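worker-03 picked up job from queue 'complexes'. Input manifest follows; two sequence lines, order preserved.
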Amino acid sequence: MSELDRQSTAIGTVEWDYAPAPEARDIVTLQERYGLFVGGRLVDPRSGEWFATIDPSSEEPLAEVAQAGPEDVDLAVQAAREAFTNGWSDIAPSERAKYLFRIARILQERSREFAVLESLNGGKPIRESRDVDVPLAAAHFFYYAGWADKLEYAFPNRRPRALGVAGQIIPWNFPLLMLSWKIAPALAAGNTVVLKPAETTPLTALLFADVVRQAELPAGVVNIITGDGRAGAALVDHPGVDKIAFTGSTEVGKAIQRRLAGTHKKLTLELGGKAANIVFDDAALDQAVEGIVNGIYFNQGHVCCAGSRLFVQESVYEPIVQKLKRRMTTLRVGDPLDKNTDVGAINSRQQLEKIEELVRSGEEEGAEIYQPPCRLPEKGYWFVPTVFTNVAQSYRIAQEEIFGPVLSVLTFRTPEEAVEKANNTPYGLSAGVWTEKGSRILWMADRLRAGVVWANTYNRFDPASPFGGYKESGFGREGGRHGLEPYLDFTAENGG
Amino acid sequence: MAQAPALPGGFELPLEPRLPRVGAVDAVALEERAATLAKRSIKRESKLQALDLAIRTMDLTTLEGADTPGKVASLATKAMRPDPTDATIPSVAALCVYPNLVPTAVERLRGSSVKVASVATAFPSGQSPLDVKITETRDVVEAGAHEVDMVIDRNAFLSGRYAKVYDEVVRVKEACGDAHLKVILETGELGTYDNVRRAALLSIAAGADFVKTSTGKISPAATLPVTLCLLEVVRDVYDETGRRIGVKAAGGIRQAKQAIQYLVLVHETLGPEWLTPDLFRLGASSLLNDVLMQIRKQRTGRYQSPDYFTID
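worker-03 finished. Artifact:
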């Protein structure tokens, strides 16, 4: 790099800075206050509590949102139960499909509005919310709409039936997309839902409530309650819920599993990860570098399946690290609404502090840190894309989920060693393999203990493809035909 | 005569100074990266800067059987003063013509900064004996061409005779003397990005000053991914040897918007250092007027009728 820098300054070149290209935010009309969406209406919380939700890139408040208390949760579950028994469970499956198709189309029609709001409230670059989050969310509704009247074909001879009321708790990293991963299969299977978005990112879920209204979905089929962990706990504990689907941290996932022990409730958990992204020496190196960047800096690294541990075959370690560092200098960090932004704001102060703490530990333990030169905005929560080299397998940065734009680079010599090191983690959500050799991809995929193994790509999602973890990354699958199963009851299978 | 090198298993080109190993290109990821860069939103002053650069790096081209001295003379005038009503508009980099029109181009462009580029080596097919190609190259250089755009022998390349491809480039480079050599790979005929990468490295090893995507005579001509592929080869060569090789994207680039996408590709792959006519060219026959129209739109806020831009 130093050689490169020296030569380029010697030549003397014209700088070409891209002018700001902000997406207009006036497409979004925010209310001052949002109540809870229960029984088809936005209602004030019985708890009487409200809290502010902010734009993490500026720390400006956007709106006030209700904190659901136990009584509010109870009302929401009741509304869902009522909707389930009085109609939703009896309507023709093809009618359910129509509603889902309608929701999908409305999401497409209002895609710009959703993308802008997602970036405003969550801090992610508009490029991602526009090109990934919102289109994928619509795609999930389209996909599951297709299954709604074909459940008998999805599970032949198993007599699938709806479960009842599903309680769903989603994280802040992909608010609308996680909502669609949860709601689309639940409705397709004939359930009603009570969904709690994350405390820091409730707004697209509340905008989705308007889509539900627009689609004329019967009241109570979808209920959205906002609030912090207390609201989530009340939902988990509510006896009227038949199933809990949770996406979030392993710590909370474990607590939920403990609380549900001995109850009738079904559970699926999609938890943390510390994925290995493995680059072999025969890989297409420039494209592998793109995959590494996409694996860890996509959505500021707030991705449970982020490729946060990079394993590079030692014979290509130097070119990979050199190419990676150079590529990092071209990452544009800043205003999430700027169409040229590659890396946006960290979602919350709490998350920023967690990232900072882990990065400090990496430096203290002896890893070598690299951060590209980068001017960060003064307000808001920001973290420069970071890569650690000289990382030992035992360092905290190689063990713990950072959930931020921080990559640890490790090396290996043989495929066996790569598998052994990649699997040496309590997690098992995803992995990446970069090689031109097809047989090696299959060999690796057989041995990696991860729910998703990407070959020569990373962070690629499709509604038809099941997603979920091994070990402490959780259980149950979302997406694909597999994603319907947790929302169905098969006890009638044996005539029962 | 230079000896064609042995290429052991295609693993590394055993040449001094050492070149990067051939390596591989992943088509899906390459195309995805190009598509992402194509979405960069270039506005206001940065757009004007890009449009200006698009003109300064342009090889204004006419390669028709119907080309005549009259046509080339008219285009030469356009090349020097693309917009006679606006003195701030720069000249293009070069005028690219067939060998028989080099004398006209040289005469009309004398004293200007615009270079004369001539295609050669049995353009566009390259299906002629080597001595014919060498003679043609010598002729155009003698006639005053500053730059020679040769085609590689795809007959040899696609049948695996890489040494012949290499040898031809070496011989043509010798025949060029001081003239700059651009090597056209005709990527639309090579089938895979791996082949594009191999052909580019081979040409660079043999002495190419520029690698160029296409003749413009077949489709697809230049595309963003294939240009990105070349830029990555050039970056690897620079990293390993310090040699700066130019890239020319040619064919199918008709709109200012496309030109900006190519410039973004160069900017984010090789950096601003490559954003000069010495190291990057856009080969185009009908792009210039759209760029001029966009510049005027950017400055005045209004589109003007195409009738205000001369057809040459």
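worker-03 released lock.
Chain A has a mean pLDDT of 95.
Chain A has 16 helices and 20 strands.
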